[in-house]
Amino acid sequence: MPAWSRAGLLLGSLTALFLWSAPAAVADDSFIAGYATAILEREFAGQKISVRVTDGVIVLQAKDIQGRERDKVVGALTRIAGVREVRIEEEPAQAPGPGAPPPKADQSSTGVTGGKWQAFPEGQLFSPLLADPRWPHFSIGYQHFTHSQVPKLGNVGSVTMGEHFNLVGYGSPEVGDFTLGVEPAVFAVFNMDAFSHDLVNADYRGALPLEYRRGPLALRASILHQSSHLGDEFLLDTPTQRINLSYEAVDVKISYQAGTFRFYAGGSTLVHREPETLKRWSAQQGVEWISTAHFINDAIAPIVAVDVQEHEETGWRGNLSLRAGIELVNPEKTRRRIQFLLEYYRGYNPNGQFYGERVEYFGAGMHVYF
After folding, report:
1. Nearest 5°: CA angle at 355, between 352 and 358?
2. For residues 228-235, average pLDDT
3. Would you list the DSSP string of 130-179?
4. Kind and range of the H or E element at 17?
5. Residue that is last in its domain, among 90, 115, 140
6. Band of the pLDDT at 263, cuts 50, 70, 90?
7. Contact 361, 157 (CB under 8 A)
8. Which among 73, 80, 63, 56 has a CA at the least distance from the CA of 108?
9. Distance between CA 328 and CA 305 in Å, rounded?
């Protein structure tokens, strides 16, 4: 299939997902309202707290919540899948009279506050892809390769250092929320069977992501640069023909939150690459599930994630990444979380210098999001 046909098919799929998501928002608001009510009844028995949900935004009345319980309520509700923002209104919502300003609100949110520009807004509108081997965050893990020819690997240490930082954001109840940020990251693997635990490969990446969210729908478009480098000790121990791999790419993704499940798809194209023979197109799809059966005061939840990627360079053969485990989070500070995950990968090596080699590995790791 020609590259332009694949691009058209991918664009059509993304458009269909966008159009399909519009009428489903109401159903998701009902799910959020029901789940939020159940949490409030369980954790705050004896208190009557009214809940209103519109387009993924939970609105509570300040008169229903007293003192320090505000943070606990906001933290517990923010954790619900699909919640975009939690607002606490100081006064009951009323239709404003002619010329009257809208009611003021004390807002705690997962994104930008509504209706204005904001510098350095908190949170991500497009949530991290949990099973993507190349998603910027902080992690440390162990991988046991059951198949790896070049290089010959067995026990491997994996380290990721990366972060998402928002520069500016804009939010509007009518159109949704936008943020523009920066994303630096380093992905490195070490040969634990070598005497000095040699650095095998390090991928350095920088990205400028533009993110959008409205209700259960989120979009992300980014431009990124990546370069790959082999470790000096690895080259001394294992003479290897180095590839000067470097490229810039445009990447687009869309995700939809349906209850406890999240579905996503996307694609990217290389706008500049070295070597020049490197083919341009790639695609990505996946699904994630975070259980509503939280434990220990909503601090622990089981999660499962599946990510599949295909690249034109490797004949569109799928690369499968599976991760499952538990997530620990402070319900009052839900942006900070730690995940302990088991993983399985089968496909082409995700470490830049060896992109043409098939590998298979099992592993375990700790993943931290700030």
Report:
1. 135
2. 76
3. TT-TT--SEEEEEEEEEEE-SS--SEEEEEEEE--EEEEEEEETTTEEEE
4. helix 3-43
5. 115
6. very high
7. no
8. 73
9. 16
Structure tokens at 272: 């500049």
Pick from 217, 174, 214, 175: nearest CA to 15: 217
317 or 29: whose pLDDT is higher?
317
Query: Could you tell me the residue range of the domain that residue 311 belongs to?
Result: 121-369
What is the per-residue pLDDT for 6?
53
Residues 121 and 339 sit within 8 Å (Cβ to Cβ): no
- Where does residue 68 rank: exposed (0-12), middle (13-18), buried (19+ CB within 10 A)? exposed
Q: What is the tally of structural domains in the chain?
A: 2
175 with 140, same domain: the answer is yes
Distance CA 132, CA 31 (A): 27
Is residue 29 a contact partner of residue 57, using CB atoms and an 8 Å limit? no
Kindly state the DSSP code that residue 231 receives in the 8-state scheme: -
C-alpha–C-alpha distance, residues 113 and 119, integer Å:
11
Residue 7, phi then psi, degrees to nearest 5: -65, -40
Chain centre distance of CA 15: 20
Q: Where are the beta strands (DSSP E) in 149-260?
A: 155-162, 165-172, 176-191, 199-214, 217-230, 246-258
Length of the chain: 370
What CATH code is carried by the domain that includes residue 167? Answer: 2.40.230.10
How confident is the model over 136-145, as pLDDT tens digits? 999 999 999 9
pTM of structure:
0.75
Contact 344, 326 (CB under 8 A): no
Say if strands 57-61 and 85-89 run parallel, antiparallel, or are unpaired: parallel
Averaged over 99-125, what is the pLDDT?
A: 61
Greatest CA separation for the chain:
78
Q: What is the pLDDT of residues 207-226, one digit of tens each?
A: 999 999 988 899 999 999 99
Instruction: Name the residue among 89, 83, 76 with its Cα closest to residue 58.
Output: 83
Beta carbons of 350 and 319 less than 8 angstroms apart = yes
Most confident of 10-19, 48-57, 195-204: 195-204
* Residues 87 and 185 reside in one and the same domain: no
Q: Let me know whether 129 and 261 are in one domain.
A: yes
Domain end call among 70, 91, 115:
115
